[in-house]
Amino acid sequence: MVEAFNNIYKNKKVVITGETGFKGSWLASWLLELGAEVYGFSKGLPSGPCLFNLLELRDQISHQKGDINTLDEVERLINDVRPDFLFHLAAQAIVKDSYENPINTFNTNVMGTINVMEALRKSQTSCVGIFVTSDKCYHNDEMDRPFKEEDPLGGKDPYSASKGAAEVVIRSYYYSFFQEGPVKIGTGRAGNVIGGGDWAANRIVPDCIRAWAENEKVVLRRPDAIRPWQHVLEPLSGYLTLGQRIFESSIVNGQSFNFGPDPELRHSVGNLVEKMSIEWDPNDSNNELLKIEPEGKFDESQYLRLDSSKANKLLDWNPVLSFDETVSMTVNWYKRFYQNQESAKDLCQADIKRYTAKLIES
Fold first, then answer.
1. CA dist list (Å): 111 to 33, 162, 276
2. Which of 66, 69, 72 is nearest to 15 (CA)?
3. Which residues have a Cβ under 8 Å from the Cβ of 326 and sit 6 or more positions away?
4. 48 or 54, which is more confident?
5. What's the pTM?
6. Is 60 exceeded by the pLDDT of residue 296?
């Protein structure tokens, strides 16, 4: 396990903001496997059930309850821990919720990010900070082409705009404060991640699992929308690789990277859910688990694909799971959790072990 990432994280102090979330919980588990000393900072639990609780992470890491929108609390965290690495995942991550509460979305995703950078700037601790934004940070002209890191940032909905704005302010802090000195930073752009243990509202995989567990149909409002689906461990491996590369060399300091599947492999919402339904119930050949309804009232992009060639060239990073493997790992996690009553901790550790073996071999 520890051969991955050149043992960089072993015995290092690593802060994760938003570690109670879906991606944060998986990242905390992986870092523990890598031998890191993990510190978490989050406002509360995002869902019920919650993967953070099921993994019993509160007993394995140093968990601090706090608000990313309160600078004093973030400064106290950084000054107390003085981390070697920081992964900033705390965010308002749901497009629909950004329409219902845009102010909270912008405060959390923009000002929360500024608070973390400001705390790092003031502390002058030697730290690599990886800031996780989104594949939706780009100005989407619906031309159905993979986005590259140099493409214009933007967003029609508050969530996407907040992530584009976060990228702008991160870049500003890099040029103003972090080109030289003890703090080094990078950003990771990814999204549409799936995997076991996600129970968030208004996300397609949790919505499917909740419905099918109750023998109900799933409602698809935009079945033709194209998304860069990937297992949660894929972008996390990208963030960890980026942290490793910045730690080892300043060459990629301050840069942003896409982490996504092969953009030529086009999979829609409908493709994903149909594949999931077959994995969940192999007898569902007639798609009895699906239902198509008119599109929702809020605006979302139709086409979204990422070009990750920069990560391949500069970080030697590539996805290692096929679409079929991604869907199979995800659905089987839930089936074993619900039907076999297997523990979330065992399931996550097995997936991390399997993924890491493929990562080392690739």
1. 32, 10, 37
2. 66
3. 194, 229, 230, 231, 234, 261
4. 54
5. 0.94
6. no
